[in-house]
Write a structure and sequence with these properties.
The complex is a heterotrimer. By secondary structure, chain A is of the alpha/beta class. Chain A has twelve helices and 24 strands. The longest helix of chain C is centred in the last third of the chain and has 17 residues. Classes of the chains: A alpha/beta, B alpha/beta, C alpha/beta.
């Protein structure tokens, strides 16, 4: 069992343990936009942040779009109707500025992140960290050598204020306000998130990390992320998310825009372990210019409902897009995830591998979109969706949409549904494992090829998260 | 040389990798030439390039069938000009029967609008299948689909017999054949030998040349012919092994 | 739009529909059925662009205006078209309609009649076997988007056939139904009702054609197929309406325990053709196979929507739809496999393959799964691409010109489905139709 010991040692060493997310601290906020959503709330957020007029206009316009757009229940789940927008708090902060040392972070907040193991992970393997507590970042620091190379890593308020020449050009361009109802909501009330710029040719070896924590009940977190990788640069960004278990529903609705300019590479890694009352409705899209690559590596565990379909617009020749996704839906959970690949230049290629596990009465859904228009040549897409159903009433759905024209383009989509074979379980039990352990091993085997794509620090943790979810799934 | 397959200073590559390097060879009509050589030396590339495969790029050089340039022509035009390639790995064509397939190939060689004599066609097809000991039911099977290695190679020779090209390139036709199939396939080729057809037999082993006795044997290494001789060269090569080629002949 | 702002006429004219309905006096239930159809038709909206069940379809050009129910054909036309309707040398029975009028009533062998086999026009069956019709006719809704079209079909229901093969009777020779459209602007609403009793075996072939290739026509067809315990139904439906026709077919199939159902749909004709095929698997051991093939040319749109509902466990379903696209044609395949929560040990498969032979053609694919039981084997696959370059090279290397090689490969591509047709004569007829279509594309 050397391997288990080794992975235990790794876990202890790093311990960004999202399994430990279920605790909370008292809520005492200096800035609170109150309950419900209105033009006044939007003004309040703008005022607290001291924003330029154009940003307030952008927000107010988005609020109108949000109010005008219907809930997308003609294709999505009716559960969306249970979100009570009038009972949510849209902005909460302790009035802090993002500190550059953990010592300056308020004790209760610091303790939250220490329990989650963030400061330690930063020392071990990260090039930069940002920690967000409800609406605002409480900690933001990047290693000095990164700053010297011209890398920018800040929040949207700072990004739009201090570097408008870099960020304004792309802000809201990859995902326009009207893209969908929740992108509009985010555009109206966004706060926190990461704005990152990697200069030409800079290859950031270690990942940049952001950590999102919801601490208050009936709260909506609306972070906004924009990453611009200039020509020939490379960056890996990781985000983790948790919230305590509340009695009432909480909303997380982020917008993430990625821009990979000519020859750049962006890898965006998410490990989400929201508690089971969070509506997690996130819009993520990247643009890949000539020879650029955008990879989304996405793991969705927890939440009541996740709707997330990371996309790549392949805008330049030979651009590559990839989505690797793992979803695990337990009782009362619906993981509605997928991918979108919009081919918009010749010789572009895209790859989607989505694996889902449904446990108990959990439901996982794959939605995909692959679009190749008629003017294009030599584009390729490969999509594989595999669903594993653990219990008798576990549910899975697959709804891909594939549209192809043009010359020498080819797409291939395959999906399968299976369960863990009884023989496999028996074999492992005969070797002395309990049924639960055997099931857990089998599930880890099912996602193993994708887990390997996560950085080692995350893959260890992921396996542990999956084991936790599998506890009590049999017997 | 009007009555020959002539290859002159051919340079060809796949992707960035140069494979044929100033390759030259002449096969007069009526003769059987064999090309032997170690794996990866460019033998199969030569066959594909002559047949006009789109994956390969010809940088320079020429190839002529009885004086007609074939480099740069479409694969079907090259075939109709008289070059037949027996594939090392023949494609499976689902849903297309052998009978329809060979018929389409024959019709393509006829003058436009000329009537097709189905009766004569089937008579000839069946006779040739009998000679190759192929079950007549094969005509209704889809081209190469689910065929064993031996059946695929027999199907290639059947097509060769039906299409009667000026020159045939046999690419590793012996690979995957047991001794009985090898004998049947070789007999088929030997029946076709005569003043009207030239053969280029590509093989890794001398074994095939016991059945199809060549007029000339060429040894290919690193993209070109490094040594030529009569049929005894094959035996010498068999005795000395390919290391001999790599050490002695490559430097020559 | 069907909003009746101007004076409606033809099939949108309520008074015409009511007048025709009066013909069925004495069959009150049927009158009610037609009236309900009209009521539903008027209540339902035409599909719109953002309707999920019509995703990728060209809903803007949907129009039901300017179609009329045509008068009975002349004797000369009737004789001519009957002469062109013999696709199979010895069918178990042949029924022919022209513009929705039955012009050849089927005659079946006395020994079949003696065993209780019924093959009649819908109107005759309405008089002779009302109980059978009441039990099986239009028992299912159109749940794939075509409810308005099915309602209109129901409102104008008159044409079509009823085929009933009682318990234990096995018939190998296919029954044949031929539908023609003849008059410019004709609308027809043919219905197919097939009931196979327990352990009965039956095969039906349907040929749908237009007498004139350029004629405008509207065909809204529906099929109800019921297979009892251990029954075998094989259906081969050929859609070869003229190139200016609009056609809609809504098929509902129910399979009981151990039933074996094979359905092959071949699509050649129509400017736009939509097929909605729902299969309900209601008994364990059932085995349902749905196949489709098409060659779409010009600006044709072939819209294929399928639903495999597994309500009972231990059953199988398999689906394969293959489309060849040329010119500016478009095909849409949207399929869903639904496995109910208790339908354990289901095997369900779905495959869509599209061969694009033109850069301007468009193939859309929406293969879906909704699985609520865990002990299942389900998969789907969809591919869209050109001919395999290695296969193409092999043909070219034999001297076959590019155009011929592509056609051969496309025919080979279709052969996988044509080989499932249970009658070689019928398969050959359709193979030749596809070949002709290639040559005129």
């Amino acid at each position: 069992m050397a391997e288990i010991e080794e992975s235990q040692a790794q876990r202890d060493a790093i311990a960004v343990d999202r399994t430990k997310g279920d605790f909370k601290y008292e809520e005492n906020y200096a800035f609170d936009a109150g309950i419900g959503l209105s033009a006044k709330v939007v003004d309040y957020i703008s005022n607290v942040k001291g924003e330029d007029a154009w940003i307030n206009e952008f927000r107010q316009k988005a609020l109108k779009v949000f109010n005008d757009l219907p809930m997308p229940t003609h294709w999505a789940t009716e559960d969306l109707k249970n979100i009570k927008f009038d009972e949510i708090r849209y902005y909460l902060s302790k009035g802090q500025k993002a500190s550059r040392t953990w010592e300056e972070v308020p004790d209760d907040v610091k303790e939250t992140f220490e329990r989650l193991g963030i400061p330690e992970a930063e020392r071990k393997f990260l090039a930069g960290v940002e920690a967000q507590f409800d609406s605002e970042a409480v900690y933001s620091r990047m290693k000095d050598e990164m700053s010297k190379l011209g890398v920018i890593f800040c929040g949207p308020t700072e990004g739009l204020r201090d570097h408008p020449e870099i960020f304004r050009k792309w802000f809201g361009k990859v995902i326009p306000t009207g893209d969908n109802k929740f992108a509009a909501l985010n555009s109206a009330v966004f706060s926190g998130g990461s704005f990152i710029y990697i200069p030409k040719g800079v290859k950031v070896a270690q990942p940049l990390q952001a950590y999102f924590r919801i601490n208050a009940e009936n709260f909506g977190q609306f972070e906004r992320t924009l990453i611009i990788a200039d020509e020939g640069s490379e960056v890996t960004y990781m985000e983790g998310c948790t919230a305590p278990k509340f009695e009432t529903a909480t909303l997380h609705s982020a917008v993430v825009e990625l821009v990979a300019l000519k020859g750049a590479k962006i890898q965006y890694i998410t490990v989400q372990n929201w508690s089971a009352n969070v509506f997690n409705l996130v819009t993520k899209r990247g643009v890949a210019e000539e020879d650029a690559e955008v990879r989304w590596i996405d793991c969705n565990i927890g939440s009541r409902l996740t709707m997330k379909y990371p996309g790549v617009v392949l805008r330049g020749k030979r651009a590559r897009g990839e989505v690797l996704s793992i979803a695990l839906a337990n009782d009362g959970q619906h993981q509605d995830t997928g991918a979108k690949m919009i081919h918009a230049a010749d010789d572009t290629s895209s790859n989607i591998i989505a694996k889902s596990i449904s446990v108990g009465a959990g439901r996982s859904t794959y939605r995909g979109l692959v679009h190749i228009p008629k003017t294009l040549r030599n584009c390729k897409n490969n999509t594989e969706c595999d669903a594993l159903l653990i219990n008798e009433h576990s549910r899975t759905d697959t709804y891909p949409a594939i549209s192809v024209r043009g010359q020498k383009n080819s797409v291939q989509h395959e999906a399968s549904v299976s369960k863990v074979s009884a023989e496999q379980i028996f074999y492992m039990m005969q070797r002395g494992l309990t049924e639960g352990e055997a099931m857990s091993l089998a599930v880890n085997g099912f996602v193993n090829d994708l887990v390997k794509e996560f950085p080692m620090e995350y893959s260890v943790e992921l396996k542990r998260l999956i084991e936790l979810q599998m506890e009590g799934s049999v017997g | 040389m009007p009555d020959s397959l002539v290859i002159k200073n051919l340079n060809a590559s796949i992707g960035d990798r140069a494979i044929l390097k100033d390759f030259s060879l002449t096969v007069p009509k009526g003769e059987v030439h064999a090309i032997m050589g170690p794996n990866g030396t460019g033998k199969s590339t030569l066959a594909k390039v002559l047949a006009g495969h789109p994956d390969y790029t010809v940088q320079s050089g020429e190839a002529f069938i009885d004086g007609e340039q074939i480099i740069g022509q479409e694969p079907d035009a090259i075939a109709r000009a008289g070059l037949f390639l027996a594939f090392q790995y023949p494609s499976e064509i689902p849903g297309v029967t052998i009978a329809n397939f060979i018929r389409a190939a024959i019709v393509a060689r006829q003058a436009k609008g000329a009537p097709f004599d189905a009766k004569a066609y089937y008579a000839e097809l069946y006779a040739k299948m009998d000679a190759l000991k192929m079950d007549r039911k094969f005509t209704a099977r889809f081209v190469n689909e689910g065929f064993s290695g031996g059946e695929k190679k027999r199907c290639e020779i059947l097509q060769l017999m039906m299409l009667k090209p000026k020159y045939a390139v046999l690419d590793e036709t012996d690979s995957g054949l047991d001794i009985d199939a090898l004998r049947i396939v070789s007999e088929g080729v030997n029946r076709l030998r005569g003043p009207d057809m030239g053969f280029l037999v590509i093989t890794h082993y001398q074994r095939l040349l016991e059945y199809i006795v060549p007029d000339r044997v060429h040894i290919m290494y690193d993209g070109r012919i490094v040594h030529s001789g009569d049929k005894d060269l094959a035996l010498e090569l068999e005795a000395k092994g390919y290391d001999w080629v790599k050490k002695d002949l490559a430097s020559a | 739009m069907t909003t009746l702002t101007s004076m409606p006429s033809g099939i949108l004219d309520a008074s015409l529909q009511q007048n025709e309905t009066k013909r069925f006096a004495g069959n009150d239930w049927f009158i009610q059925l037609r009236q309900l159809g009209w009521k539903n038709f008027e209540a339902l909206p035409l599909p719109k662009r953002d309707d999920e069940k019509w995703r990728f379809s060209d809903t803007r050009s949907l129009s039901l205006a300017d179609f009329t129910v045509a008068a009975a054909p002349s004797d000369a036309d009737t004789a001519k078209l009957i002469g062109q309707s013999h696709f199979i040398t010895r069918p178990a029975g042949l029924i022919i309609h022209i513009d929705g009028h039955c012009v050849l009533r089927p005659v079946i062998a006395p020994e079949l009649a003696a065993q209780g086999v019924k093959f009649e026009s819908l109107e005759d069956a309405l008089r002779h076997h009302p109980a059978l019709l009441k039990e099986f006719l239009l028992k299912h809704e159109a749940n794939l988007g075509g409810a308005k079209f099915l309602a209109l079909h129901q409102a104008w229901l008159r044409a079509g056939y009823v085929l009933h093969v009682p318990k234990g009777v096995e018939i190998t020779q296919p029954f044949v139904s031929v539908n023609w459209t003849l008059t410019e602007g004709a609308a027809i609403f043919p219905h197919a009702l097939v009931v196979a009793g327990d352990h009965a075996k039956v095969s039906i072939h349907e040929f749908n054609l237009s007498a004139l290739p350029d004629q405008r026509a509207l065909a809204i067809s529906a099929a109800d197929l019921h297979a009892g315990t251990g029954a075998h139904i094989s259906r081969f439906a050929v859609q070869a309406w003229g190139k200016n026709a609009q056609s809609f077919e809504i098929a509902n199939t129910c399979g009981g325990r151990d039933a074996l159902i094979t359905s092959v749909n071949a699509a050649l004709g129509s400017r736009r053709a939509r097929l909605e095929n729902t299969v309900r698997i209601e008994g364990p051991g059932a085995d349902v196979r749905l196949y489709g093939i098409s060659v779409a040319t010009g600006e044709q749109e072939f819209d294929q929507r399928t639903l495999q509902i597994h309500s009972a466990g231990k059953a199988k379903s398999d689906l394969l739809f293959k489309n060849v696209l040329l010119n500016k044609a478009r095909t849409i395949f949207s399929g869903l496999i639904k496995v109910a929560p208790d339908a354990q040990q289901t095997d369900a498969y779905q495959t869509n393959r599209n061969l694009l032979l033109s850069p301007e053609a468009e193939a859309d694919s929406l293969p879906g799964l909704e699985i609520e039981a865990n002990d299942v084997k389900c998969s789907h696959g969809a591919t869209t691409g050109q001919v395999n370059p290695e296969e193409l090279f092999y043909l070219l290397a034999r001297g076959i010109p590019l155009a011929v090689a592509q056609e051969l490969l496309a025919e080979g591509f279709l052969e996988e489905v044509l080989s499932k047709v249970d009658n070689e004569e019928a398969a050959a007829v359709v193979r030749e139709m596809f070949r002709q279509k290639f040559h005129t594309a």
